[in-house]
Every structure is written in C-alpha cells, then in structure tokens.
C-alpha cells in the first residue's frame, strides 16, 4: 500500500488532475493514451499503434522495477491514461500499488499475460507455486502478448482496430522469422550439448523454445546475491554436472559471476533483460535478435567443447 502521505498528496491534487483531464479531452480526444509499466510493453504497444495513440510510461526510464517505490507523480500520470498495459504476474508490482491507490474503476487494464502458458519460477528462495514473470524475454510469449494487447486495443478503439491487428500480425511474422533464422544456423548442431546455468530465471522462456533446460539458477531470488554458502554450492554443482555456459544479465552488475567463471571455467554469455535503457519502439526486436544470436554462439561453443572432449 502507498503511504498516507502519498495518498494525501493524491487527494490534494484532484483539482489539478481535473484540469489535466479537461485539456486532455480537448487536445487528444481522438487518440487513446495508453500507459505501460515496463520497457518491453512500450515496444509492444508502439509496434501496434504507431502514431495512432499516445504511449505514456507510468515511470520514466532509468528506474529499477524490482525495488521501485511508487511516488505521487505516478498517480498523476495514471490519471492521464485511458488504458494501462501490465505484466501483472510480477516485475511490475509497483504498478499494482499505484492502481490500488488511484481507485480508478473506469481505467481499462490489459493483463498481457492472461493467455500465456507460464513457467514455474526458479531460485532457492522462490515460493511454491510462484510463476516466472519474464515472459517478455521469449519469442512465442511475446507474440501471444502482442496479440492479446492488439485485440484489447481494437475493442477500445474500433476505428483503428484492423490497423492494430495487422501490425500485431507483422510483429509475429518478424519474430517467427527471427527464430527460424536462428534455427537454420543450428541445423548441424547438437543443442543438448549446451548445459546451462543462469544468474536468475529470466531466460527460461527463450531457452525452452530451443529445447534447452536450465540446470541451475544462481540468485536465490531476482536481484538477490547468493550467500557465500549458496555460491559455493553453485560452484560445486557446476563443477560436477557438466554445465558449460553461464548466461547473465547484460545491464546489471553481478559481482559473483567472475568468481564462478574463475572457479569453474564456465563460459560467460550475456543476455538482454529488456528492462533497461530508454523506451524505444524497436527495443524488443533488436534485443531479441541479439539474444538469439548470443544463444546460437553459445550452442556452437558447447558443441566445440563436446567435440574436443571426445
């Protein structure tokens, strides 16, 4: 829950918000204002609507969604939105707090993961039944979410509905072509030669599309560094289980990664988590392309190591 101080600020600004609504209605009555909570959703929505709607991030770029605490300004932004697109299964929990505080029964909320088959979360401190919220790091899951968002927006804005749905189909084609191109590069490779550890469970959706299972997750929970004993247990497991590659996050420092590399000889590869940097329309396409090529490189490396060991 938001603090009473933030609530008080919210109520004191109702008049200001009313004025914002009035000007917004006059200036942009023909365009939806679509709120988003995370970087990939900016990319999804921008791909769908292009210039036919306004996209408004709930929080400016540069924040860490794992530890962000809602601010009074977030409530002001929320009041400008006609609809809000959320991950809704974790990773944007801060937005759920803002929604609860705003008490806007008229605000349409699109839960992008409502039709996505969810994987179980991994990590020593993850509770039973917890789901992996990183669906935006998968290809098939991204396609499903873009369809869900486009269909919901088409209902809210029927004049542009066919345009939105056509753009969603084009996105799906691009993503499938990307995956097909990566698979073509792996025709002669043994994918099972790749034995994987990850710093956290962000990459499982992408890896499963290529038939790869994660053997161990190092962080007990996302963004939580392992204790000394947990780190030693991980090192021992990597040494004795044949793990040959460790995937870690491109934009976040992990001090323990160098230790693991030094102690085990495991090869390091970086994946983009897609939740850092500026909000851009092509972020998902570009960074998913980088991730798939990184995965191809890792699989070829694992095959080379396997051949040398024979």
UniProtKB/TrEMBL annotation:
Extent of the signal sequence: 1-27
Keywords: Signal, Transport
GO-annotated biological processes: cell adhesion; metal ion transport
Pfam families named in the record: ZnuA
Coiled-coil spans in chain: none
Keyword tRNA-binding attached: no
Record carries keyword Transport: yes
GO molecular function: metal ion binding
Family under the similarity heading: Belongs to the bacterial solute-binding protein 9 family.
Protein's name according to its UniProt entry: Zinc ABC transporter substrate-binding protein
């Amino acid at each position: 829950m938001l603090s009473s101080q933030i609530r008080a600020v919210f109520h004191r600004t109702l008049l200001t918000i009313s004025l914002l609504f009035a000007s917004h209605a006059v200036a942009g009555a023909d365009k939806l204002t679509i709120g988003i909570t995370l970087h990939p959703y900016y990319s999804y929505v921008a791909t769908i609507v292009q210039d036919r709607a306004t996209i408004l991030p709930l929080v400016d770029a540069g924040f860490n969604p794992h530890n962000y605490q809602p601010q009074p300004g977030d409530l002001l932004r929320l009041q400008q939105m006609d609809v809000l697109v959320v991950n809704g299964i974790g990773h944007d929990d801060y937005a759920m707090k803002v929604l609860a505080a705003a008490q806007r029964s008229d605000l349409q909320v699109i839960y992008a993961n409502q039709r996505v088959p969810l994987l179980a979360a991994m990590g020593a401190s993850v509770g039973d039944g917890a789901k992996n919220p990183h669906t935006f790091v998968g290809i098939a899951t991204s396609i499903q979410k873009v369809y869900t968002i486009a269909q919901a927006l088409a209902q809210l804005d029927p004049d542009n509905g066919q345009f939105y749905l056509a753009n969603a189909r084009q996105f799906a084609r691009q993503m499938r072509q990307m995956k097909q191109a990566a698979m073509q590069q792996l025709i002669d490779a043994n994918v099972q030669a790749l034995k994987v550890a990850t710093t956290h469970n962000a990459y499982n959706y992408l890896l499963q599309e290529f038939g790869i299972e994660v053997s161990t997750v190092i962080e007990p929970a996302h963004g939580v560094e392992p204790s000394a004993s947990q780190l030693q247990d991980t090192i021992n497991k990597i040494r004795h289980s044949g793990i040959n590659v460790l995937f870690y996050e491109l934009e976040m420092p992990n001090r323990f990664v160098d230790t693991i590399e030094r102690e085990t000889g495991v090869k390091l590869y970086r994946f983009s988590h897609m939740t850092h940097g500026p909000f851009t329309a092509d972020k998902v396409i570009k960074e998913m392309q980088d991730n798939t090529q990184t995965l191809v490189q890792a699989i070829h490396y694992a095959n080379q190591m396997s051949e040398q060991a024979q």
